[in-house]
């Protein structure tokens, strides 16, 4: 297995390099980059004779435009005075040391921006993860045992309707119904906590946080329930119909013993193997529309604003970090097959 892990790690390097190279080419050579945006802003604010100052140098004077010297200063400010290949190699060298640079738009370190917004995305992702796995596995088992019953039909209809409704549409509906839009004002509309959160006791802080998270978590989790529930049901149905289940029943074992001692450990394999990737992704991914609707300044909104503002350090830095996380989580998902199913081995892959 060690050889297999080393091979996978070796394959991560060209994959990560290729993703960053393609993205670098796209972002660096599209029109409307940071230099052009800054020039446009300075020209738009120059009617009153103001001067836009970067560092200690005045880069704009009234309506006289930018001469070559000031343009060169702008190019140097954003690092565009170097050839593209040199910029890319320097960027990758810094990224290997997890130095993602400074944002053009926020004028803060990219790492600080990500750390400041991770708690919001982690709150949405982690709670959604716990709800999805906590609800879907027992529900899927119950549906498999009662396959074709009224319970199975009703629950399938409900979860498929929830799956068909986009998360942002459900979020708007929840706001209208329970956020004081037109009916009941039961839950807050924005933020993770109330304005006076710092003055609350520990118990009240926890309750206030959970109170704020009800609507956004519901909107983000409902869409995932159908996929995981039906996957669980189909996996258990496939195992229930196998010969070893009939043999176990013939030996006089109860239905619970057959289900949880024999069927469960085989049927849960395709569900558990997706656990590592989904768990890690839940900490770092953000939903742009959910965060926008509920005024949550998380990773999804940061990524969207960075693309709009041509904030290349944020775009490329977060892409590098999340791509690396994604590759590692995929490796953990593959390794989890061996942990939950001893029949699987990577020995033939190692050779």
UniProtKB/TrEMBL annotation:
CDD domains, per the entry: TM_PBP2 (cd06261)
Membrane spanning residue stretches: 9-30, 124-145, 157-189, 209-232, 267-294, 314-333
Superkingdom assignment: Bacteria
Domain (ABC transmembrane type-1): residue spans on this chain: 118-333
Gene3D superfamilies listed in its UniProt record: MetI-like
Protein location: Cell membrane
Keywords in alphabetical order: Cell membrane, Membrane, Transmembrane, Transmembrane helix, Transport
Entry annotated with the keyword Transmembrane helix: yes
GO process terms (BP): microcin transport; transmembrane transport
Membrane topology: Multi-pass membrane protein
GO cellular component, one term: plasma membrane
PANTHER family named in the record: INNER MEMBRANE ABC TRANSPORTER (PTHR30465), INNER MEMBRANE ABC TRANSPORTER PERMEASE PROTEIN YEJB (PTHR30465:SF66)
Family recorded in the similarity comment: Belongs to the binding-protein-dependent transport system permease family.
Name of the protein this chain belongs to: Microcin C transport system permease protein
